[in-house]
Design brief:
The complex is a heterodimer of chains A (about 650) and B (about 325). Chain A contains 25 helices and 8 strands. With about 650 residues, chain A is mostly helical. Classes of the chains: A mainly alpha (about 650), B mainly alpha (about 325).
Chain lengths: ~650, ~325
C-alpha cells in the first residue's frame, strides 16, 4: 500500500515538474473553484516565479518518493502524510488568494509536523524528538500568525483577498503601512526559511524526520519561505524599500555565519546538515536582500543579477541538500546511528552512498566544478558590484555581508571535510558501523539521480542562469544581466566577471588524466605495496587512535570560543592507590546555543508568567464565564 | 587556435618546471642566509625523479579517496596554472576570474584534508583539521582582497585586472593598494604553509600541519603532492607579482613578447623569493592558536584597503 502511495506521489511530482517548467518558460494559466473552500474559493494561478518553485518541489519530490520506497520498507505509517506534504508544497507557489494560500501552507506545516513526530517515535530518543516536533509546531504557528496578520491587514487596506489585486493597490498605501505588512510577512516567511534568529526549530525538526522528508524539508520547504519573501518584496508590496533589503542582507549574513559555525562543531550527521541548511538559506537571503537594495536604488540590472544568483542558489541547494540528506539517510539505514563519533569506514561498506555523499559535499562546499561553486560565484559577483550604489553606509553593509559569506564559504569546506571524512573514511568506530550494509536499490537510484542533477545544474549553468534570470525579470524588469560568450562563457555585467563552468569541468577532467598518462609513458608505475598506517611504532591500529569529529572541530571551538561558550567539564577518576594511574577520564564540551539562551528562554519565561497571571480569569465557574460573555456583548454594543 | 594551444602548453610547462625550481631556490637561499651551503636550486627535480622510481606503500586502512587525491590535486593546480596570468595578460583559460582560482586551491585543500583523514592515524587527522581551519579563516581575507582589486579595476577577471591596473599611474605608491598587497601576502603565507603559519621543513609531530596531512604518502603519490604544493606556491607568488605590480606583461602571445613576459615574471618572482626567504629566516613559527590573530590582522588590512577606495573616490 505504501509503495503505491509513494509511486503515485512520484508520478504526481513528475507531472507537476513538467507543469512548473512550462510555467517557468511562460505558460500562464489560472484556475478557480469558488465553491470548494469558503472566503473566496480555491484559486490557483501559474506565473514564471510560481513555475520555478513548483518545478523545484516536483523535481526533488520524484527522487525523494523513490527513495522512500526503499527507506521505509513495508512501514505504512507516514505515507499519507508524506503525500499530503508534497501536494501542499506543490500548491503553495500557485495559490492565488489568501484562503488557498493559508490552507496549503497549513497543510504543508501540519503534514510535516506529523512526519517529524512520526520520525521521532521511530527514533530512539523519543523524548528529545517529541520536543523537536513541539518546537516546530510552536514556531511554525507563530509564523503563520504573523503571515495571516500581514495578509489580513493587506486585505483590509486593499479590499481584496486576491493576490493579483494587491500589486495594483499597494502603491497607494503609505510607506509605513507597507513596511509594517512587509515586516509581518517577513517574520512569517523568515521563520519558515530558517533565518537566524527564527531558525531554532530547524536543527531540531529536520534531523528528527525520516530522511526523505528531511531532504524535502531542507531542500524545498524552507525555499517556500524564500518564495514568499520574493513575492512579498517584489510583487504584493510593489516597489521594494531599501530598508527591507538591508534587513534581509544582515539576517542572511548572520544566518550564513551562525549556521555554518554550529554545523562545524556538530557530531550528529543529520543535524549538521540541518545547520548547513541555515547557512545556505543565509546565502539565498543575502542575494535576495542585495536584489531588494539594488532595485530600490534604481539599479535594476544589478538587482536582477542578485536575484538570479539567489534563485540559482536556491535551486542548487535543493539538489545537493536533498542528495546529502538522502545519503545521510543511507548511513542511518545501514548503521542505525547518526552520531559521527560511532561511524567511520563506511566508504568500503557503502560505496554508492559514500560516492553520492562526496558529490553533494563537493557541491555544497562551493568547490569547482559543481553547482554550488557556480551559484556562490554569481552571488559574489553581484555583491562585489555594490560600489555602484555610491552610498558609503550601504557599502559598509555590503562589505559586512561579503565578509560573512566568505567566512561561511571557508567554514563550509571544513564542515564537509569533517562530515565526509569522519563518517566514511578510516576505520569504523563502532560495531554498528563495521556491520553496515549498502542502501537498497531504490535508495541508490534516487541518490544517483540527484547526484547527476547536481552535475547537470553545474554543466548547464550557461542555460540555467539565463532561464532563472528570465524568471527574475518578471519581478524586476531589466535586460538580462548575464550574456553568453564563446565557449559557453557566462559574462556578468559586460566583462565584470566571466566563467565557463563546462570548460572548468573539462579542464579538471583532463588535468586528472594528464599525470596518469605522463606516468604511464615514463613507466613510473611500480605496483603499490599495501601495509599498515605508520604511527610512531605502536603495535596495532584501532579506531580509538583516529581523530574524532569533536577533535576535528577543536580548532574552531577554540577560535570561536566567544560564540560557542562551551561549558567544559573534565572529570579525572584516579586510582585510589596511586594518583599516577588514571581509571577514567570524562571530558565534555557541549556547545551552548546563545540565541536560545538569550532570546527564547527569557521570552518563554515572560510568556509563562503572563499565562499564569492570565489564568486568574479562568476560575472554572460557569456563572463567571456567562458574566464575561455579557460584559463582552455590552462592550461590543457600546463600541458599535 | 594552434597558438592558443601552444600558449597553454608553454604556460603549463613554465609553471610545472618553474615550481620545483622556485622551491629549490627558496631552500638554497634559506640555507645561505643561516650560513649553510644548502642544496643546489635544482635539487627538487632529483627528489621528484627519485620518488617516481620508488614503490608506493599504501596503508590498508585507506580507500580510493587516498589514491585519487594526488591526481585531483595536480589537476586543480594545472587548471589554476592555465587560468593565471603568468606569461601574458590573456591566460589560456581567458574567462577565469580570481574567485575561480582561489576555489581551485580550496578544491585541492578539500581532497588533501580528506586523504589526511583516510589513513586513520591521529597525525593525518590533526593535519587535516588544522589545514582546513586555517584555509577557512583565510577565506574572508581572500575575498576582501579580491574586492579591493575589483574596486580598482572594476572587474574580477584576472586578465582584465592586469591590463587595467598596468595603465594606472602611481600604483606602486598607492597606500590602499599596498595594504591589499600585504593582506594577500599574509594569505599566501597561510595557504601555502609557510612560516610563521606552518613550517615546511618540520617533521615534529605536534607542530606540523601540511606535512602531517601528507605523512602517509610515498613514492609517486608523494611526488605528485609535492609537485602540486610547489605549483601552488609558484602560482600564489605569481599572482602577488602580476596582480599587484602588473608591469611588463604582454597582452599578445608573440614570441619576443612572451620572452619579455617570462623575464619580467622571473625578475618579480626573484624579488618575492628573496623576501620570503628572509622573512622565513627571521620569524619564528606562531603558536597555532595565534594564527587566527594574524589572519584577523590581514583581514583588517584588506578592509582598510577597501574603505580607502570607497571613501577616497
Amino acid at each position: 500500500m505504501a509503495i503505491i502511495v509513494y509511486a503515485l506521489t512520484a508520478l504526481l511530482s513528475a507531472a507537476a515538474t513538467a507543469l512548473g517548467v512550462a510555467g517557468m518558460l511562460g505558460a500562464r494559466w489560472a484556475l478557480g473553484i469558488d465553491w470548494l473552500v469558503p472566503l473566496g474559493g480555491l484559486m490557483l494561478e501559474m506565473d514564471p516565479l510560481a513555475g520555478l518553485f513548483v518545478a523545484l518541489v516536483g523535481a526533488l519530490a520524484v527522487p525523494a518518493s523513490l527513495y522512500a520506497i526503499g527507506y521505509t520498507g513495508r512501514e505504512r505509517r507516514g505515507c499519507l502524510a508524506y503525500a499530503a506534504f508534497v501536494a501542499a508544497m506543490l500548491v503553495v507557489p500557485v495559490a492565488a488568494n489568501v484562503m488557498t494560500f493559508a490552507l496549503a501552507w497549513e497543510i504543508m506545516s501540519l503534514a510535516s509536523y506529523v512526519l517529524v513526530l512520526d520520525g521521532a517515535r521511530a527514533g530512539r530518543e523519543s523524548n528529545a524528538s517529541t520536543h523537536a516536533a513541539w518546537v516546530y509546531a510552536v514556531v511554525t504557528h507563530a509564523g503563520l500568525a504573523c503571515l495571516l496578520a500581514g495578509m489580513l491587514l493587506l486585505m483590509a487596506w486593499t479590499g481584496s483577498a486576491r493576490f493579483a489585486d494587491w500589486q495594483a493597490a499597494a502603491p497607494a498605501l503609505g510607506t509605513g503601512a507597507r513596511s509594517l505588512v512587509w515586516a509581518l510577512l517577513a517574520l512569517g516567511f523568515g521563520a519558515k526559511a530558517g533565518g537566524v534568529p527564527l531558525h531554532v526549530w530547524l536543527p531540531l525538526a529536520h534531523p528528527a524526520a525520516p530522511s526523505h522528508v528531511s531532504a524535502l524539508m531542507s531542500g524545498v520547504m524552507i525555499k517556500l519561505g524564500v518564495y514568499g519573501l520574493l513575492r512579498a518584496s517584489f510583487v504584493w508590496l510593489a516597489s521594494a524599500q531599501s530598508g527591507w533589503g538591508v534587513a534581509l542582507l544582515l539576517v542572511g549574513a548572520l544566518s550564513a555565519v551562525v549556521g555554518v559555525l554550529y554545523a562545524v562543531v556538530d557530531r550528529d550527521l543529520k543535524r549538521l546538515l540541518a545547520f548547513s541548511s541555515i547557512e545556505n538559506v543565509g546565502i539565498v537571503l543575502v542575494g535576495t536582500g542585495a536584489a531588494v537594495v539594488f532595485a530600490a536604488s534604481a539599479l535594476p540590472g544589478l538587482a536582477l543579477l542578485a536575484l538570479a544568483a539567489a534563485l540559482y542558489h536556491a535551486v542548487n541547494h535543493a539538489a545537493f541538500k536533498g542528495l546529502l540528506f538522502m545519503a545521510a539517510g543511507g548511513v542511518l539505514h545501514g548503521t542505525g546511528t547518526r552520531d559521527m563519533e560511532s561511524l567511520g569506514g563506511l566508504i568500503k561498506r557503502q560505496p554508492w552512498t559514500a560516492a553520492c555523499f562526496l558529490v553533494g559535499a563537493v557541491a555544497i562546499a562551493g568547490l569547482p566544478p559543481l553547482n554550488g561553486f557556480v551559484s556562490e560565484w554569481l552571488t559574489f559577483q553581484a555583491l562585489l558590484q555594490n560600489d555602484l550604489l555610491h552610498w558609503p553606509a550601504m557599502n559598509l553593509v555590503f562589505a559586512l555581508a561579503i565578509a560573512g559569506l566568505a567566512l561561511a564559504a571557508g567554514l563550509a569546506v571544513a564542515v564537509f571535510v569533517k562530515a565526509f571524512g569522519i563518517t566514511f573514511l578510516a576505520l569504523p568506530r563502532s560495531a554498528a558501523a563495521a556491520g553496515a550494509h549498502e542502501a537498497p536499490a531504490t535508495m541508490r537510484a534516487a541518490m544517483l539521480i540527484t547526484a547527476v542533477g547536481c552535475a547537470a545544474l553545474a554543466l548547464g549553468a550557461s542555460w540555467i542562469v539565463p532561464t532563472v534570470g528570465a524568471v527574475g525579470a518578471t519581478l524586476v524588469p531589466a535586460p538580462p544581466p548575464v550574456t553568453l560568450g564563446e565557449w559557453l562563457t557566462l559574462e556578468v555585467s559586460g566583462d565584470f566577471a566571466t566563467l565557463s563552468a563546462p570548460a572548468v569541468a573539462l579542464a579538471l577532467a583532463s588535468g586528472v588524466l594528464l599525470p596518469i598518462v605522463l606516468l604511464f609513458l615514463a613507466r613510473a608505475r611500480p605496483r603499490a605495496r599495501r601495509y599498515e598506517t605508520w604511527s610512531c611504532g605502536r603495535l596495532l591500529q584501532t579506531a580509538r587512535m583516529e581523530y574524532t569529529a569533536t577533535a576535528f572541530a577543536d580548532p574552531f571551538t577554540r577560535v570561536f570560543d566567544f560564540f560557542y561558550r562551551p561549558a567544559r567539564r573534565l572529570d579525572v577518576d584516579l586510582h585510589p592507590e596511586s594518583r599516577f594511574f588514571v581509571r577514567r577520564i570524562r571530558y565534555e564540551n557541549p556547545t551552548r546555543f546563545i540565541v536560545d539562551e538569550w532570546l527564547y528562554r527569557p521570552l518563554g519565561r515572560v510568556l509563562r508568567a503572563a499565562a499564569r497571571h492570565a489564568a486568574v480569569v479562568q476560575s472554572g465557574s460557569p456563572n463567571l464565564y456567562l458574566a464575561y460573555v455579557l460584559v463582552a456583548l455590552l462592550l461590543l454594543l457600546l463600541v458599535a | 587556435m594552434t597558438n592558443a594551444v601552444l600558449l597553454a602548453v608553454l604556460q603549463a610547462v613554465v609553471v610545472g618546471l618553474g615550481a620545483p625550481l622556485l622551491v629549490g631556490t627558496l631552500r638554497t637561499l634559506k640555507a645561505r642566509l643561516v650560513g649553510c651551503r644548502g642544496p643546489a636550486p635544482w635539487q627538487p627535480f632529483f627528489d621528484l625523479r627519485k620518488l617516481l622510481g620508488k614503490t608506493p606503500v599504501v596503508s590498508d586502512t585507506t580507500s580510493w579517496i587516498f589514491l585519487v587525491t594526488p591526481y585531483v590535486l595536480v589537476s586543480a593546480m594545472l587548471v589554476a596554472a592555465l587560468a593565471a596570468p603568468v606569461l601574458t595578460s590573456r591566460p589560456p583559460l581567458a574567462f577565469a576570474g580570481i574567485i575561480l582560482l582561489m576555489s581551485l586551491f580550496l578544491l585541492g585543500t578539500f581532497f588533501l584534508a580528506l586523504a589526511g583523514l583516510d589513513a586513520g592515524s591521529a597525525f593525518g587527522g590533526m593535519g587535516s583539521s588544522r589545514e582546513v581551519a586555517i584555509a577557512a579563516l583565510a577565506e574572508p581575507t581572500v575575498i576582501v582582497a579580491v574586492f579591493a582589486l575589483a574596486l580598482r579595476a572594476n572587474t574580477t577577471n584576472l586578465g582584465a585586472i592586469v591590463e587595467r591596473l598596468s595603465v594606472e599611474p602611481l600604483l606602486a605608491v598607492n597606500a590602499g593598494h599596498l595594504l591589499a598587497f600585504v593582506a594577500f601576502f599574509i594569505v599566501m603565507l597561510a595557504e601555502t604553509g609557510r612560516l610563521p603559519v606552518d613550517n615546511p621543513a618540520t617533521h615534529l609531530e605536534l607542530t606540523m600541519i601540511h606535512e602531517a596531512m601528507v605523512l602517509e604518502y610515498s613514492a609517486r603519490h608523494l611526488a605528485l603532492v609535492e609537485w602540486a604544493s610547489a605549483m601552488k606556491l609558484f602560482l600564489f607568488l605569481t599572482l602577488l607579482a602580476n596582480l599587484f605590480f602588473p608591469w611588463g606583461i604582454p597582452a599578445q602571445a608573440a614570441p619576443t613578447a612572451l620572452l619579455l613576459g617570462l623575464l619580467a615574471v622571473a625578475g618579480k618572482l626573484a624579488v618575492l623569493v628573496v623576501a620570503l626567504a628572509t622573512l622565513e629566516t627571521v620569524v619564528a613559527k606562531l603558536r597555532l592558536f595565534r594564527v587566527p590573530e594574524l589572519l584577523a590582522g590581514s583581514f583588517a588590512l584588506g578592509v582598510i584597503s577597501v574603505s580607502a577606495v570607497v571613501l577616497l573616490r
